[in-house]
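FAQ: What does a ligand-bound record look like?

Like this one, built around adenosine-5'-diphosphate:
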Amino acid sequence: MSKILVINSGSSSIKYKLYDRDDWRVLASGSVMRIGEPASEIHSEWLDGRGEHYSSRSTTPIATHADGMDRILLALAGQLINTPPPHEMTEEEIDHLLQALKDGEALAEAAELAAVGHRVVHGGEAFHLPTLVDDDVIEAIRHMSPLAPLHNPANLDGILVARELFPGIPHVAVFDTAFHQTMPRTAYRYAIPDYLYREHWVRRYGFHGTSHHYVAKRAAHMLGKPLEQCNLITLHLGNGASATAIRDGASVDTSMGMTPLEGLVMGTRCGDLDPAIHFYLSKHLGLDNDTLDDLLNRQSGLLGLCGVNDMREIQRKAQQGDEAAELAIGVTCHRLKKYIGAYYAELGRVDAIVFTGGIGENDAETRARSCAGLERLGIELDPQANTRPHDQLTDLERDIATAASPVRLLVIPTDEELEIARQAFEAVAGADGSSSVSS
Ligand code: ADP
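The answer part, i.e. the structure of the complex:
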């Protein structure tokens, strides 16, 4: 068995990647986006046996996650056993092929799957490692759904459908929260009455764990020492954003909390906020909980400050003198710098600060402004290295600190799917012999 399939099933999308586990090459990938909308988008890419690259895009209504998984099954069948693409078949032919795929072993055999890795957003306190999925694990993920009402049910949909499609293959759940389960109590408890933690699970969990873990391992490789000896501040800056303090390779603090709303300024989320603002808005503007949820999760952050949530456009506007755009960048970088300072104080010694995610990997200005004035802490950015165009193939992971800077500043593209694939594979290998799987 030489391949690993990774499935990331979100609230309105399913993404997948098929890896060759010998060299972790991506053999096939794709997505079904906008599930439940009139025009769902299906995209797939694959390599044929000779390494030729193919890609296809189509638009068709996909009502449910089960229908979305069917489309992924058809795409995989097209890639692995050369069935015709769905847009060349009638609905009847599609139904017939799907039934044959579900009844037979042809696809499972062609896929040569060693494991299917599933992204699961919330593992609560129960899961601190990748975990082989069985009925108890499914129940536990369902049990945790109140903590992530948009994500866990969608993740579960993906697991349930994939288990039916690939019944004889180990399925592994990889949790966004797992990497942060090493946080000490002093970092994860809120200063609110004890029973809220004991009886209602109110504590900080943190997210983006798979990404923070992946870039931490790559950073250790770049620093030339074992991860267990590295102290790092990792900054995942995408549409969602979080910072993590890593001591001796383990997460000891992270900026997202019980939900992904806490912490840094994000595309549409406010990040840190005085909780009394909630009461104020409720009392004075009469906003109810659903409206407040939407306001703080989907109308705030960069979007709230300047009307746009795409950092590329915000930078363009700021360069043209748009004051709101300039303020949005300023607030974002101010918050980032506060977290860098706080985590520096927590760690005492920092080997490297790592930038990742769409903004962290690409936006030189955010990197420069969040490190500006921190030279006394040994954080010295090299402006030329920071802005130098980099080669997409050879120079993706790069060090942008001055030669003399005691703290290295690393830009490392994240790859959450690859990390899920590796962890799923290790979990399966561990389940055979040693014990890298637990719940
Ligand atoms: P997601 O959390 O949805 O995976 P990404 O990690 O793709 O998000 O990050 C999206 C953000 O990255 C957007 O704000 C986008 O504008 C920003 N981004 C992507 N490329 C660049 C770039 N070249 N310069 C500045 N920002 C960029």
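Follow-up question: can I read anything off the structure? Yes, for example: Residues 433-439 have pLDDT under 50 and may be disordered.
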